[in-house]
Amino acid sequence: MKMYKMRSVARENGQQTPVDLNLEFEGKRAFVIWDTITLGKFELKARVEIDPAFLQAATRPDCDFLYNGQLVLSRAENN
Fold it and tell me: pLDDT for 6-61, tens place per residue?
C-alpha cells in the first residue's frame, strides 16, 4: 500500500498547531496513520478514517495532500 504525506491543523488547548501525518488510501476511503508498531515481521497501525472530500492535492514538496476538515486525534494518555 502506497503511503502519502498529509499536512493539517490540529487544535489543542485552544491553539492551532500544524501536524504532519502519513496517509493511506483503501479504495475510496482515506486513513491517517496515528501510530505504527513493528512486531517482528508484522506492522500494526493505528488508523483514523478521514473524509477524503476534504483532501486537497498539495503543491508543496514536503507533503502530498492538505486536509481542510476537522481532525480529532486522541492522545494515548487519554485512552
Answer: 998 877 777 888 889 999 999 999 999 988 999 999 999 999 899 999 999 998 88
Cβ-contact 19, 69 below 8 angstroms: no
Distance CA 48, CA 53 (A): 15
Nearest in space to 18 (alpha carbons), one of 76, 75, 67:
67
**79 in any annotated domain:** no
The total number of structural domains that make up the chain:
1
